[in-house]
Automatic annotation (TrEMBL):
<dbReference type="InterPro" id="IPR051325">
    <property type="entry name" value="Nudix_hydrolase_domain"/>
</dbReference>
<dbReference type="GO" id="GO:0006167">
    <property type="term" value="P:AMP biosynthetic process"/>
</dbReference>
<keyword id="KW-0547">Nucleotide-binding</keyword>
<dbReference type="GO" id="GO:0006754">
    <property type="term" value="P:ATP biosynthetic process"/>
</dbReference>
<dbReference type="InterPro" id="IPR015797">
    <property type="entry name" value="NUDIX_hydrolase-like_dom_sf"/>
</dbReference>
<dbReference type="GO" id="GO:0004081">
    <property type="term" value="F:bis(5'-nucleosyl)-tetraphosphatase (asymmetrical) activity"/>
</dbReference>
<dbReference type="Pfam" id="PF00293">
    <property type="entry name" value="NUDIX"/>
</dbReference>
<dbReference type="InterPro" id="IPR003565">
    <property type="entry name" value="Tetra_PHTase"/>
</dbReference>
<comment type="function">
    <text>Catalyzes the asymmetric hydrolysis of diadenosine 5',5'''-P1,P4-tetraphosphate (Ap4A) to yield AMP and ATP. Exhibits decapping activity towards FAD-capped RNAs and dpCoA-capped RNAs in vitro.</text>
</comment>
<protein>
    <recommendedName>
        <fullName>Bis(5'-nucleosyl)-tetraphosphatase [asymmetrical]</fullName>
        <ecNumber>3.6.1.17</ecNumber>
    </recommendedName>
</protein>
<dbReference type="GO" id="GO:0000166">
    <property type="term" value="F:nucleotide binding"/>
</dbReference>
<dbReference type="InterPro" id="IPR000086">
    <property type="entry name" value="NUDIX_hydrolase_dom"/>
</dbReference>
<keyword id="KW-0378">Hydrolase</keyword>
<feature type="domain" description="Nudix hydrolase">
    <location>
        <begin position="1"/>
        <end position="141"/>
    </location>
</feature>
<dbReference type="InterPro" id="IPR020084">
    <property type="entry name" value="NUDIX_hydrolase_CS"/>
</dbReference>
<comment type="similarity">
    <text>Belongs to the Nudix hydrolase family.</text>
</comment>
């Protein structure tokens, strides 16, 4: 049976200059793990018994980044499922997309992470070393661009 994890790809919109495209002001939140290879990832974690996937995504975001569900707006129409092996076992990760209501909200990391960054798409893809995560971030950005 595949290990199941759920999380949120969180973004914020900075006040853009009137001449620029709205999507130029989008930054994505990535957290750096304090274990293993210290990779960068959106907040995510394993589904607890009796919990549905979206509840897991919000709980993990609260635990790992200190963000309450009330501080985020879930974006309708985006959900991504990734499948990859971890230590030889299959893993499924489901991501939803959420926007920060206030782009100045403080991020409070748990012990699972040692750093966080708000990054524009290009930098977020450099930090997220896994190809499927890079592709997902690009897909999210396209999705947001298409909504403008």
């Amino acid at each position: 049976m595949a290990v199941r994890a759920c999380g949120l790809i969180i973004y914020r919109r900075l006040q853009a200059a009137p001449s620029s495209k709205v999507t130029d002001g989008i930054e994505y939140l990535l957290l750096q793990t304090s274990y293993g290879t210290h990779h960068w990832t959106p907040p995510k974690g394993h589904v607890d018994p009796g919990e549905d996937d979206l509840q897991t995504a919000f709980r993990e975001t609260q635990e790992e980044a200190g963000l309450q569900a009330s501080q985020l707006t879930l974006i309708e129409g985006y959900k991504k499922e990734l499948h990859y092996p971890v230590r030889g076992k299959p893993k499924t990760v489901i991501y939803w997309l959420a926007e920060m209501k206030d782009c100045n909200t403080e991020i409070k990391l748990s012990e699972e992470h040692q750093a966080f960054q708000w990054l524009k798409l290009e930098d977020a893809c450099k930090f997220a070393e896994y190809e499927d995560m890079q592709a997902t971030l690009k897909e999210v950005h396209q999705f947001l661009c298409s909504k403008e």
